[in-house]
Every structure is written in structure tokens, then in C-alpha cells.
Design goal:
Elements (H helix, E strand, L loop, with lengths): L1 E5 L13 H11 L3 E5 L8 H13 L10 H18 L3 E4 L14 E5 L3 H4 L11 H17 L2 E4 L2 H11 L6 E3 L12 H10 L5 E6 L8 H13 L4 E6 L13 E5 L6 H12 L3 E4 L8 H7 L5 E4 L4 H4 L6 E4 L4 H16 L2 H17 L3 H16 L1
Parallel strand pairs: 1-2, 1-3, 3-4, 4-5, 5-6, 7-8, 7-10, 8-9, 10-11, 11-12
Helix pairs in contact: 1-14, 7-13, 8-12, 10-13
């Protein structure tokens, strides 16, 4: 199968978009696909669009961006059509609806992403109080992409439902294929099994990886660490990726290490080390489309604790690779996380089983080789 892998930016650079295009396209190649890249598209240099942005944001004070305007997306589409015509792939695969929204081609198109425009509205930062004009342009682009695509793959049931329920996507075109871990090189299974067996039961190492203190629910995680210590379980919470709001006092059990850039070899090794030496990854997100980091934790046999929101329920198989807690009053939420931790830590055999089943979820479901194989099978069934 010859796949034209399409991105606005670079898909052969691990530094782009958290590495998703890099690892996704690499998975296709490992499964035998002939991957050719359409990437680094030229943006539209439009005085009209720039003026529109400035007028609506600075004069009308709207939450508006011309990012989804038809003129901008059509500019991408014209470039893609010319390149694809020369390549003649069997299918165009894109991790976004935007570049293909107004693409005029007879080549089958498959999108594979973790959210829809409507799924983000009033859910993610930057998508609250969006102007009516921006919503109309976003809806139009999403609808146009669905009409043009042969297959719409989504990382979660949540995203797939929003595509069908909110954007009117044809259910026959929609499939759910979870995404994998954005880490270079799998850890040795023998080493992971040894680490699971040797994790101490008399203390708990919690890890939170995230760049947004509020959205990732860091305040809840801090309360969990504080409460576990109060209940007699020595606990350290390491937060990597973000820092607390100015003036916020933290207990001694919380360790802030700031941003770790896993786009660099040193940063990648640092993230792996943090994961490998943790008992749990905790991420009480207030909004989450998917959560690649859950797959990354599972690759080290680290179970996850997360909120039951957005696409997370597709990643976490309850009791197999982690547990979910509903968003609620912060104190009550923190107490539920504490109960889950104490239950696991008080039963060494149970924790080891949980760690091993987390690794198994990664091996069978949450890695890019398995994910892209499933995607290729779905594509083959659609394009014949």
C-alpha cells in the first residue's frame, strides 16, 4: 500500500505536534507501507485574512481565528492536489481534517485524529466563547472533510461520537483506532517485569506529566499526595512539564522539575526514567482528547489514574491498565484517588498484576505498530 502521509508541518520531525505524525507515519512504514510525505505546506499570505483576524479580535473583541477559513484551507488543498497527482498513492492519510477539507482529488482520503471541532468547543482552552463566525467556518471545514474522506479514524469512542452526533459524519465511514506511545524504542520486557516486581510497597511514587497546570488537574494531584501522606503512605508527587501558579504554596511531598523536552534525546531519556521509576501516572485532567502519555506509562508497566473525561475511557481499560475517577468536588475526587492507590499498594500481588496487565495493554493495543496495522486493515477494507 502506497500511503501519502499528509501534514501541514513536518511529519519526519519528532519535534512536530508532540511527535504524533512522526510516530504514526513510522508505524505505517514498519507495517510495510510505502510512505511518501506531503508536508511543510506554504501558508496563505493573505492581507484579507490577516485583516479579518485583527478586526474581529481587536475591534469586535471576539474569540476568532481564520485558521479554519475556506480561503486558507483551499490554499493548502491546491498544493496538496498538485503533489498527490505526481505521487499517485493508493490513499492519502492525514492526522487532521483541515488540509483535506477542500481537497479536490480522486485519490481516497483517510483521516486519523483524536478530536473534532465540535468536541473541542467549550471543552478545551481557547475554545470557549468562540465567535459565531469562527464556529460556522469550523463546522463548514469539518463537514467538507467528512464528505471528501473515504474513512474517518478516531483515537477514541468520544471523538467518533462527536463526529457522528455533532457533525453528521456517516457512521459507515467512522472507525475507532487508539493511538500509540510517542517514545523512541521499547523498553526491554524483562527489565519492565523486573521493575514491576521490585517497586517498593512501603512508599508511593506518583508522576504527573503535563504542560498545563489547570487543564491537567495538578491541584487535585497535589491533594492526593498530601492526603496519602496524612494517611500514613509516604508519597512523592513529581510534576514534570509545568509549574504552579505564582504564589501557590506546595507541600514538601511535591517535586516540581519543570518542562522536559522529550523532542531531544536527553529529554526522551529523562521522561523514560521518570516513568520507569513511578508506581502510578496520575492525570486528573479537566479536559483530554486522548492521552498519549497513558500509553507511554503502560509501556513501562506503570498503571494510570485519570479522570473519566473526553477520550480517556477508550485508553484506560478499568482495572487492567488503570482506573478512572469522575470529576467532582476536589476534595472528594482526591479521596477517591487515594483509595485506589491505597488499595493497590496494600496488596503487592494485586499491584504486580496491575502493572503486568498495563504492559499487556500496551503490547496488544496501545502501541503504534499495532495501531497502524489496524488502520491499514480498515483502509484496505474501504478502498478495496
Amino acid at each position: 500500500m502506497k500511503i501519502a502521509y499528509l501534514t501541514i508541518g513536518a511529519s519526519d520531525d519528532v519535534k512536530e505536534w508532540s511527535g504524533i505524525p512522526f510516530f504514526m507515519s513510522g508505524g505505517f512504514a514498519r507495517n510495510g507501507a510505502d510512505v511518501v510525505r506531503i508536508q511543510n505546506l506554504r501558508g496563505a499570505r493573505s492581507v484579507y485574512l490577516r485583516g479579518r483576524d485583527l478586526f474581529r479580535t481587536r475591534v469586535l473583541h471576539e474569540n476568532y481565528s481564520s485558521f479554519r477559513h475556506k480561503k486558507r484551507l483551499a490554499h493548502y488543498a491546491r498544493q496538496i492536489a498538485e503533489i498527490a497527482k505526481r505521487m499517485r498513492p493508493d490513499v492519502i492519510v492525514c492526522p487532521s481534517t483541515l488540509p483535506v477539507a477542500y481537497l479536490d482529488t480522486d485519490i481516497p482520503i483517510a483521516i486519523w485524529t483524536d478530536s473534532t471541532f465540535r468536541g473541542l468547543l467549550d471543552f478545551y482552552p481557547g475554545y470557549f466563547h468562540v465567535s459565531a463566525q469562527a464556529i460556522a467556518e469550523g463546522d463548514a471545514a469539518e463537514q467538507a472533510a467528512f464528505e471528501r474522506c473515504t474513512l474517518a479514524l478516531y483515537a477514541s469512542e468520544w471523538a467518533a461520537r462527536t463526529a457522528i452526533d455533532c457533525h453528521g459524519a456517516d457512521p459507515n465511514k467512522v472507525r475507532v483506532v487508539p493511538m500509540g506511545a510517542n517514545l523512541c524504542g521499547d523498553a526491554s520486557e524483562v527489565d519492565v517485569a523486573r521493575r514491576i516486581a521490585n517497586r517498593p510497597g512501603d512508599r508511593c511514587e506518583l508522576l504527573l506529566l503535563g504542560v498545563d497546570w489547570v487543564r491537567k488537574g495538578c491541584a487535585v494531584a497535589v491533594d492526593v499526595a498530601r492526603e496519602l501522606n496524612r494517611r500514613g503512605m509516604p508519597t512523592t508527587l513529581t510534576i514534570a512539564g509545568c509549574t504552579p501558579p505564582s504564589g501557590m504554596a506546595l507541600p514538601e511531598c511535591v517535586k516540581i522539575i519543570g518542562f522536559v523536552d522529550k523532542r531531544t534525546p536527553a529529554g526522551m531519556d529523562r521522561v523514560k526514567d521518570l516513568l520507569a521509576n513511578s508506581h502510578f501516572l496520575i492525570l486528573p485532567s479537566r479536559a483530554e482528547c486522548y492521552g498519549i502519555v497513558f500509553a507511554e506509562a503502560n509501556s513501562f508497566g506503570v498503571p494510570v489514574l485519570a479522570s473519566n473525561v473526553g477520550g480517556i475511557p477508550t485508553v484506560i481499560s478499568e482495572g487492567k491498565n488503570g482506573f478512572m475517577v469522575p470529576i467532582q468536588d476536589q476534595r472528594a475526587e482526591a479521596e477517591e484517588y487515594c483509595e485506589l492507590v491505597l488499595r493497590a499498594m496494600s496488596a503487592p500481588d494485586f499491584y504486580r498484576q496491575l502493572g503486568n496487565s498495563a504492559l499487556e495493554e500496551y503490547k496488544t493495543r496501545l502501541n503504534w505498530t499495532v495501531a497502524t496495522a489496524s488502520a491499514m486493515q480498515a483502509i484496505g477494507e474501504r478502498i478495496g
